[in-house]
Amino acid sequence: MRALILPLVAAPLLAGCVSAVKTVVTAPVKAVGQVADWSTTSQDEADRNRGRELRKREEQMGKLSRQRDKAAEKCRDGDEEQCRRAEVLDHEIEALMAAPYQD
Description:
Elements: H1 2-39, H2 43-76, H3 80-98
């Protein structure tokens, strides 16, 4: 009789131990997974960042182009300083176009 009662009383205690062991064993795996999620960039996030970078670059190109066009117009009217400015702006536009994208 005692042999039957002891396992019945010990069963709930073992279930608690198994649960605690499971938590302790899986905790490092979950922690590593969370760190990996925090340290990597998802494809969706990378696409958003690239789109943002492209829009920023296009905005900058537009601004430089408008400045160059105004300087070129003044250059045609005989303003030598604006001719040099238009040339400098041309070089800035070329450098911006040649620069690699930031990922």
